[in-house]
Amino acid sequence: MDKRKVIIDCDPGIDDTLALMLALRSPELDILGISIVCGNVPTKKGAENALKVLKWMNRLDIPVYLGEETPLVRPYVDAMDTHGEDGLGESWYDCITSVRPKENAVQFLADTLNEVKNNNDNISIIALGPLTNIAKLIQLHPECLDGVDEIVSMGGAYKSHGNCSPVAEYNYWCDPDAAKIVFENMFVHMVGLDVTREIVLTPSILEYMCNVNSKIGEIIKKITRFYFDFHWKQEGVIGCVINDPLAVAYFIDRTLCDGFSTYTQIETQGISLGQSVIDAYDFYKKEKNSYVLTTTDAFAFMQFFFERVVEVKKEESAPVLKQIMVQK
Ligand code: BDR
Ligand code: CA
Fold it and tell me: In 3D, which of 218, 242, 142 has the Cα closest to residue 182?
């Protein structure tokens, strides 16, 4: 199988952790490194969490790089109210000491992209946090963009409401200036709240995970408890929305989601700060710079996740998931 080279840029974070687990269990991906950005938690904490995931999945050979510690312009606002003080739902797993994070994620991105570009190859970026590292890359090393195959970004919202304001999703709200730069310079596959809100890890699904794979199931249970409580208080959801793994799944399997090509820009000021303004009706007559996802097959996603992360074949998970998932 021809593996696709990827760098995963993230802010782990509970759902980032689930996304990393999925990526690490996907044979289609050659993960060259994990770059960390400030978002859900400060960068250094995010890097510690990435190392914990690598240890759980037996992949400490993949390097973790520390990225930007503040957004480009706005003051930094973390999301530890959602993800807990440790970023992993206050599970307080021990830090990894045998391997440490490396410095300078932006330089790593630039060096790796330039190297592949010189070999007529390319790399994709799966971005699961605020886009600060990627915007810095564009500002400091614009030449290396030729080495990017695709960028998939979890962020934004089209018709769905925001999760930080009526209109803004966290990743783009946290660093709207970075998101604006990225959309102005790259064609972005936008995996926004319209689709990720469909992906709900419910208590029944979690129980099923624990029954079939106690090691991974118990880790997921421990890190998502806090997230469950937050979702109930904040959104009246039983369980939790897991945004980031859908971006990884979509990168690998395009049949899981649908959307349309359009022009998108990110608002950086005022009450709609962080909003992804999607010109679905072509008012601005601008060149399309994004593929915005609008629908997803949550059942197929869950089967995909189960097959890889908890190692249950699709034909085996189908009858159980049919019992415990609401079919639309
Ligand atoms: C996004 O913000 C973070 O809290 C999650 O990790 C996800 O990337 C959802 O708005
Ligand atoms: Ca994230």
Answer: 142
Contacts of 76 (CB under 8 A, 6+ apart): 38, 42, 69, 70, 174
Residues tagged active-site:
11
Torsion sign, CA atoms 47, 52, 56, 60:
positive
Q: Give 129 Cα–ligand 1 centroid separation in angstroms.
A: 6
- Amino acid type, 301: F
Please give the single-letter amino acid code of residue 106.
V
Which amino acid does the sequence have at 10? C
Q: What's the pLDDT at 234?
A: 86
Tens of pLDDT along 93-106? 999 999 999 999 99
219 Cα to the center of ligand 2, angstroms: 18
Residues 6+ apart with CB under 8 A from 77: 174
Closest ligand to Cα 230? 1
Nearest to 52 by CA among 106, 5, 13, 9: 13
Which helix (H) or strand (E) covers residue 128, if one does? none
Helix axes 132-140, 176-185, angle to 10 degrees: 50
The atom number, within ligand 1, closest to the CA of 154 reads: 8
Q: Which residue has the higher pLDDT, 236 or 66?
A: 66
pTM comes to 0.97
276 lines ligand 1 (CB under 6 A): no
Contact between residue 259 and residue 295 where contact means Cβ atoms under 8 Å apart: yes
Among the bound ligands, the one closest to the CA of 9: 2
Dihedral through CA 153, CA 159, CA 163, CA 168, nearest 10?
70
- For residue 117, which amino acid is it? K
Decide: 195 in ligand 1 pocket, CB within 6 A: no
Q: Using one digit for the tens of pLDDT, what is the confidence trace for 42-94?
A: 999 999 999 999 999 999 999 999 999 999 999 999 999 999 999 999 999 99
Residue 49 backbone phi and psi in degrees, to 5: -70, -40
Tokens at residue 143, please? 């030449």
Atom of ligand 1 lying closest to residue 14 CA: 6
**Cα(1) to centroid(ligand 1), Å:** 31
